[in-house]
Every structure is written in structure tokens, then in C-alpha cells.
Amino acid sequence: MKRKTRRLWLVIACVAGLGTAAGLTLSAFSSNIQLFMAPSQVVDHPPAADRTIRLGGMVVAGSVKRERQGETPINLFQVTDGQAAVTVRFEGILPDLFREGQSVVAVGSLEPDKTFVASEVLAKHDETYMPKEVAEALQKSGKWNPKFGPPPDAASWNAMTGKDTAAGKN
Amino acid sequence: MTHLPYILASYGLAGSLAVILSVGAALRLKRDRLKLASLEAARGRAQSGTQGGQRA
Amino acid sequence: MNGRTLSATPTLTERAGALFHRYANPGRFLRLGDRIQPWLTWSAVIITLIGLGWGLFFSPADWQQGDSVRIMYVHVPCAWLSSSGYFALAVCSVLSLVWKHPLADLAAVEIGPVGACVTATCLATGSLWGKPMWGTWWVWDARLTSVLVLFFLYLGHIALIHAFDDQQRGYRAAAILALAGAVDLPIIKFSVQWWNTLHQPASITLTGAPTMSQTMLWPLLISTLGFTLGFTAIVVARLRAGVMESRIRSLLSSPRRAVSGEASA
């Protein structure tokens, strides 16, 4: 084998070995790399009350209650992953993107009474980018309600403009 | 426009970085080209000088 | 060149090596670079201005993000470029380690800082986008962390390539680092699928239809093309300077020897 060929194989072998090692390490630590726990995980294996965890899921439609205690707003809402729901209590101002049906990540701990007291709430937006008029048109035509899930495929509304759908074009 | 400060900061950052990198590269090219030309001219002179000396 | 060759037919490695030497020797690159530089530079400027102008003034606001979605036209091209720039660095490293190609070493020196700048812009614009949308400047999720690691890999590469008195050893150490760091690229790409993250999954994939309005997709693709051309133009300009500097160095170190144009080829 010529020297260059040998060097090439050496490089390929090193990269393959390193890649395997990295893959094994990552899969071993996979649960630690997760940013948040799902509500069903929290319900099945409740973490200790003093442990700070991140809870991620969708805000249940119709579950948001906003109160006011003096100056600080108090928000109560439920977060679900489709299997279980956890009630979250958060004192403070919610991010702009917070709404029913939105995915959120709440940082805090689970109280003994099974409510999750959050010190911070982050909004997670999905990978769909859609002009405002299209979103309004989709909602008006009843094809989609953002409170209950992700929007339909882009292909189905790409040709759409606000005027088209207002006229009931399908 | 909503969130204008954030948008302007992003575009400004990317734009200024592009300007800094391109101006830096252009200046470096100019400097190197001058230096290389002067070195090659000096070498050419030295070579023709020695050759001329041998011929004489 | 292949003095050790015993068999008459050259192996694939040798043929590939000969190809690289023929088309990428420093002198040839200098002549080629002189010719393509103006085209690269001006097409990059024009296409980037079209893409960003479209994104900033003519594309629609997002239904839930409002106008802040316009940060995407800067952030996403930078994010893609930070990964593809690192991929280019890894390719240079293979060429350097296996074929000892001098132009690949010089290219690695020049790609590093530009890639680091692009990655820094990606992180900063992502932060500027995250604050109004997510409600935080930074979160330690898998996507953000793996891109931060990429930034540190770039910085490590820059530091390592200049760390040795013997330049060849610096090239070699940096090439090994760049190759080892390439495992971060698939991690960045798939982090949003393998783990749950605050960062949303990709809108544009090779396999599926984009989950983005066409009115936003076009300016994004155009500014990506512009950014990529700009990255290439800056790297080519720096590399031309780098080749000239290596020639200057060899002229200064051996002024009497008649150094041909391809001093280090």
C-alpha cells in the first residue's frame, strides 16, 4: 500500500472511530441532553419537590386563567403532551408568543399538590412560517384553529392570499 | 414594524461584519501585491546584475 | 512524482491526488482567483442586497412572530454557512493530512476566521431573535449548545494553526482538530430531531416540502445564495493574499535561489 493510500485509510478509520464514540456517548447521555420533560413523564415519575425541572408541552385550549394580585399578574394554565396534563402556576409576564395551543417550556418545580410552580416560561414556536393574512384566512374558513394544533401543510395554502379565501375559494 | 431594535441590530451586525471582513481582505491583498512586486523586482535586478557581471 | 509506484496503473488515491495538484496548485489558483474575484464579489453584493431588501421590506410578517421573523433572513444563512464552512475546513484537512496539499493548508488558515465570524453572527442574531420570541437570550438546549461548540472549534482551530514555531506541525494539528470536530456537524443538524429543544425543527429539508410560505422562502433562498457567494469571495480574496504571503516568505528566506512562481507547490 502506498503511503498516501495508507494515510487516507488512517484518516477514514480515525473519523469512523471518533464518530462511533461520539454517537455512543450521546446516546448514553441522551436523557440528560433533553431540554425538558413531558407532562406524562412528570405524572408517572414525579420529581422531588426541591428539584428544578423544565416542563415542556402544549398549552391546553381553554385552560388559561389570568389573575392579578396587586401588581403581579398570576397565570394558571395546563400543559399537555396528549397523554397527561400538568397545571402550571406562573407569577409574572408571559412571553409574546404565549397563547392557547402554543408549545411552551416552563422552568420550575413540582409542588406536593401536583401543581407546577414556574419561575420562568419560554414560548417555543414551531417550524411553520406563514403570513398573517393566510393565518387569518385559514381560521376564518374553519380549516384550522391554532388553539388545537399545528397548521396544515404549506403546500395547501401557499397559493392563498387573504382575498382569495375571504371569497371562499378552496 | 414590531421588534424593530432587534431586527436592526441583526442586520447591522451582519452588515458591519461583512464590511469589516471585505475591507480587511482588500487591504491585505493590496499590501501583499505591492510587497511581492517590489521583492520580485529586487530579485530580478539582482539576477540580471550577476548575469551581467559574469558576461562582462 | 510517484517514484515508489511499482505497478503501472495508478491507484485511485494517486489519481485523485494528481487531480488536486493539477487544479489547485497555488500558482494556478492565483491566476484563476484574479479572474473570478470581481465576478464573485459583485454577484455576492447584488444578490445579498436583493435577498435582504426583499426580506426586510417586501416579504410578509409572520402570523405569530410579527416582523421579528425578518431576522431569519440573516440568521438562517449564517447558520447554514457556519456548518458548510466547517465542512469545507474538514475537506481541507483531509487534503492536507492525506495528500499534503499546500493550498489546502493555506485555505484552512483563511476559512477558520471567516467561519468563526459567521458562527458568531449566527449565535448573536439567534439571541436577538430568541429574546422577543422565546422570552430568553439563551437556553442550554442541544441545538444552541452544539452551535456554541462549533464556534469554539473554530476558535480552537485558529489558535492551534498558529501555535507552533514549525508551521507544518501547526497545519497538521489544526487539521486533526478540524476533522475530529466534524462529528459536531451531524449533531447540529439532527439535534432538533434527536432531542427535545427550544429551537424549532428545520423548516426546509431535503426530503419534505418546506413548512414555510413561498413569500418567505424565496427571499431566504436568495439571501442564502448571496451570503454563500460573499463567504466564498472573502475566503478567495484572503486565500490569494495567503498564497502571495507564502511566496513573499519563501522569497525572503531564500532570496538568491531562483524561486519559481509555484514556490511551495
TrEMBL record, chain A:
Keywords, A to Z? Cell membrane, Cytochrome c-type biogenesis, Heme, Iron, Membrane, Metal-binding, Signal-anchor, Transmembrane, Transmembrane helix
Subcellular location per the Swiss-Prot or TrEMBL entry: Cell inner membrane; Cell membrane
Among Pfam families, the record links this protein to: CcmE
Instruction: Outline which residue ranges sit on the Extracellular face.
Output: 29-170
Record flagged with keyword Transmembrane helix: yes
Per its UniProt record, what PANTHER family does this chain match?
CYTOCHROME C-TYPE BIOGENESIS PROTEIN CCME HOMOLOG, MITOCHONDRIAL
Functionally, this protein is described as follows:
Heme chaperone required for the biogenesis of c-type cytochromes. Transiently binds heme delivered by CcmC and transfers the heme to apo-cytochromes in a process facilitated by CcmF and CcmH.
Tell me its family: Belongs to the CcmE/CycJ family.
Q: What is this protein called?
A: Cytochrome c-type biogenesis protein CcmE
Q: Which organism is it from?
A: Acetobacter aceti
Lineage summary: Bacteria, Pseudomonadati, Pseudomonadota, Alphaproteobacteria, Acetobacterales
UniProtKB/TrEMBL annotation, chain B:
Q: Which UniProt keywords apply?
A: Membrane, Transmembrane, Transmembrane helix
Membrane-spanning parts: 6-27
Put simply, this protein is called Heme exporter protein D
Q: Which organism is it from?
A: Acetobacter aceti
